[in-house]
Amino acid sequence: MTTRDPVQRDYMQLDVFADQPGRGNPLGVVFGADDFDTAAMQALAAWLNLSETTFVLPATQPGADYRLRIFTPRQELPFAGHPSVGTAHAVLERGLATPTAAADSGALVQECAAGLLPLRISGEGAARVIHVRAPRGVERAADSRAVLASLLGAALGAVRPALIDNGPRWWCIELADEATLRRLAPDLEAMAAANRADGSVGVAVFARCSGPDYALVVRAFVPADGIPEDPVTGSANAAIAAWLRANNALPSARFRSSQGREVGRDGVVEIEVDAEGEVWIGGLTQTVIEGTLTW
Questions:
Q1: Half-sphere exposure of 89 (CA within 13 A, CB side)
Q2: Is 204:239 a contact under the CB 8 Å cutoff?
């Protein structure tokens, strides 16, 4: 086995979809990793053991401001929401890209394995709100019985379960009400086996709410990746929104979801479905750690 001397890299750790540190989903962002191969990126992401770690790289496609690769502790993802929003925040904080003026907001273009994705930006620093346009969600044919069995007979909502692909593949399942969702205790071992069998990344369950602060409450389970419950999940929220739009069941064109209270967080995802049917997800990001990482 060969070894190399460790090298210092600039590093940031962020809390995404949070109005203050500790409420959202942590994200590690590594800069200056152009010499890392896939195995090295995966090894570092596994060691950091965050829901996702991103690596910021020079763009390779015209029109992109930067490129990123996204890793869970166990695999690379073509797209994920909180890494996209959080990495854009990190890139702006480091002055690595300049937003293009567009009406009252700025714009960036992110290159990732899912393609070129535009971002909308308003505000600065801890008050900056960033939205990314998610890849269009497409329903895939799959048998839902195994993943539904892992939910221990929870009462379902009005829209039938579906496997939605917007880069990662999410099972989207509506439950009868918020109370049912918040007390849900799925069989995570059975769910992980079902995810591995059908190639899905996890299960996104949600319920409708009548309160003034959010229209949906969401929980996302990713046990096959070693993440029993993800705190706040952009791609899952985007998949749910795409699925609801396809069924003419959106609560409105713009709404918020609440996620993370069951794991001690209180994340908020802002969701918009535009006139073309594209889903935008966004929110606040807090910088928690800035420094160097030796690897």
A1: 33
A2: yes
